[in-house]
Write a structure and sequence with these properties.
Blueprint: H1 4-11, H2 14-24, H3 27-43, H4 48-58, H5 61-72, H6 77-87, H7 90-102, H8 107-116, H9 119-128, H10 136-163, H11 173-187, H12 192-207, H13 215-246
Amino acid sequence: MPSLARVQSMLTQPAFREGVRDMRAVSLGIAAWGLVTGVAMVKSGLSVQLALAISLFVFAGSAQLAALPLIAAGAPLWLILGTAFCVNLRFVVFSAQMRPYFEQVPRWRRLAYGYLIGDLNQVLMIRRHPHPTHDPQQAQYFLGVSLTNWVAWQIPSLLGIAMAQHIPGSWGLAFAGTLALLGIVLSLLADRTIAGVIIVASALSALLFWLPLRLNLVAAIVGALIVGMAWEAWSSRQLTANAVLDGTKP
């Protein structure tokens, strides 16, 4: 485990502080959605203890929200687990993208980094450091955005779990959380790949709304994942071809 001196050294690194600053810009939306998710878990019938365990150990808001209607409807366990698995498939891609950055670090640190990977800190990391160099500053930046993301999600989520029984449904927290998430999503539309994935997922979800047990969400996630991976592969081939034509790559 890292010593106190090492933790203090990390917190003072410029790259770490830069990561904190970049993630802080979107942390309000993350916090609002975390609060809504915490409330929703308890309101759906989960015990406080189970909701706390899911928030801390699963740490995947979209999977939690996708599984909750199925749990409330009494869906079979295989469907609940399959839905959560499909929702989280994107983390396989995220982890593959992160491997070149951290392949030199010890296994326990890679496991910890894998736990911290999320949608927004992944996007910020790739934008800030598009090319892995094994520079320690890249790891510092990743920890800055990732730990800020974790705190911004977990504290409101735990508060939502603790306060769920005292929050009336008439407050419309779900709608507020949806607006917060929408604001985060719209901030990512500058990236063409992410914009395409969002459009595909939204279209499939709407077109397949008639499917039972929210299976339209599963289909939308799988379709968006396929489109995103295909687009990334095509973009890589284009970049390689352009580099060859320009003479910058043999």
